[in-house]
Amino acid sequence: MELSVGLNLIGLLLITFGSISAAKATPAPKYNPDGSVSLVGEPDKKKRIAMYKRQKRFPKFLSLIGIGALIQAFALLLEKFY
C-alpha cells in the first residue's frame, strides 16, 4: 500500500468516526404527545449527567473531522507531487 493511500484511509476513518460520534453527542429533541418539541431532556439526574458529558466531547469529535480532512489533503498533495 502506498503512503498516500494509507494516509487517505486514515483520514477517511477519522472523518467517519468523528461524524458518527458527533452525531451521537448532539442533543436530541423530545417529542411531546401534543405535537410540540422540547430540548429539556431527561428528568433523571444520572441520564442528564451522562448527556452533559457526551455533549462536552462534541468539539473534540468535530476536530477529528477536521484532522481527517487535513490528512486527506496532505495525501492528495503527496500523490500529486511525488
Biggest sheet, in brief?
A: 2 strands, antiparallel
Portion in helices: over 70%
Mean pLDDT: 86
Strand content: under 5%
- Write the H/E string, N to C: HEEHH
The span between the termini is 15 Å
Radius of gyration: 19 Å
**Count of helical stretches:** 3
Relevant terms:
82 residues; elongated; mainly alpha; single chain
List the helices and strands and how they pair.
Layout: H1 3-25, E1 30-31, E2 37-38, H2 45-56, H3 58-81
Antiparallel strand pairs: 1-2
Describe what you observe in this structure.
This protein is elongated. It has 82 residues and is mainly α. α1 runs antiparallel to α3. It contains three helices and two strands; from the N terminus they run αββαα. β1 and β2 form a beta hairpin.
What's this model, at a glance?
The chain is built from 3 helices and 2 strands, in the order αββαα. It has helices spanning 3-25, 45-56, 58-81, and strands at 30-31, 37-38. A two-stranded antiparallel ribbon has the order 1-2.
